[in-house]
Prior knowledge:
Elements: H1 2-39, H2 41-62, H3 66-79, H4 83-120, H5 126-151, H6 155-180, H7 185-204, H8 216-254, H9 257-274, H10 276-291, H11 296-323, H12 325-332, H13 341-367, H14 370-423, H15 429-448, H16 454-480, H17 482-494
Helix pairs in contact: 1-2, 1-6, 1-10, 1-11, 1-16, 2-4, 2-8, 3-4, 3-5, 3-8, 3-10, 4-5, 4-8, 5-7, 6-7, 8-9, 8-14, 9-13, 10-11, 10-13, 11-13, 11-15, 11-16, 13-14, 13-15, 15-16
Amino acid sequence: MPKQSNDYTSILKSTSLFGAVQVFNIIISIIRSKVIAIWIGPTGMGIIGLLMSTLKVIGEFTRLGLSTTAVREIALTRNKQNDRESALIIATIKKVVWFTGLLGIIATIILSPLLSHLAFDNYNYTIAFIWISLSLLFSQLTAGQLAILQGYRKLNLLAKANLLGNFLALLVSLPLYYFYRLDAIVPVIILSSVVSLLISWFYANKVKFEKLKISNRDAYTKARGMLRLGFMLSLQASISLVAAYVFQLYLSQVGGVDVVGFYLAGFVILNSYVGMVFNAMRTDYFPKLSGIIESRDEINKTVSQQSVIGILLIGPLVVGFLSFLPLIIKLLYSKAFLVIVGFMSWAILGMLFKTLSWSMGYVILAKGDSKLFIKTALFFNTLMLVLNILGYYFYDLEGLGISFLIYYICHFIGLKIITSKRYKLELHTELMGIFIVLLSLSLATFGVTYINDLIYKYVLCALLIIISGVYSYYQLNKRVNFQVILKRFFKTSNE
């Protein structure tokens, strides 16, 4: 099956490429955090966190999900080989991002006194919010440029733009923090967004397409469909933010600020390290799925193939993290955070189910089914909020891990029913076979972690890591001829 093999190879290559980008970004984030901690201290970290969190909320409301819908529209026209339509959509995007970016600036300026009071309980940061509102415009313009690269599936250029943008932003920030300390915070936020914009513009200009001029009226007419879906995306993101915020308030009131810290620390591991695979896969998967969304057979094949690669990559990660979770937590944080071991042990099992539901969920988005998208978002965010409250009420922190696992089991079952009935989506039987094997190995590892004898426990954990790694390697090699790829890689490295 050469065509199928090529499909799997394409998925693995894009995942590997952006997996490397994610690792690099994590390293940059660690360096930035260390520098901030040393040069501007906890106070500076708190100021940056509050400023950026507030910008994120404003950005979610004002960007109208345009970067995601733009990728979808470009991918659709590219798949139909309609170059003029692609150029028309790009001209529209370049107009509309100015509108959404300026909307972000205006909203931030108007609300700046209120934002300062909400975030810092005073009005001292009103001017800071006015200045950093510029970064919303630059960030939106950057998103428009990156959408062109992603829609055209220029993955190498997109990876370079991400890597170079983050790296140069770090280089810009280091001397400013060193010389100006707390006074550097606002300039760093603005300059970092400018650097990202310049890098994205440089790489987006490498994509060849017809340059069209379009009036503001025509741009609005063309963008209405994108903005309608984009509004739903913004609404969904807002629902998620509100649900997370409400639960954190509940946790703070019932368990205290320390418990909120433990909870958030656990999710940093899940989302930044284990969830790195999802971030890597998302970049190519969404435009690819959007391009073939009118073919049911292609959708079934693409979703199943993406899920297979995802499970084969996530499975060994889950086994590995379960085996050495206490060591990983002490390495990333400190001994004080070992209380989240039970919470993390349950929650990390949910990542296997999340892999399947994540792959299916993108079908709704790629279809542009905005009403269904917002209904599922409202239902599942409410479900997560309820399960989290019940989990913590009955079993404290460990209960949050259990609720996370139960939620993603329900999420998988719910999306399976919804996508099967609405889009006739069917997952291949080989996928479920692979899922059951890696779930069984993960459950076995989960059980082994409760053995008190350390030598016996770690020997069994090492054995399970080897088995899961060998199994995943064997399954990958069947689909992508992994051995040939490795040989080419090492041959290239030695030349």
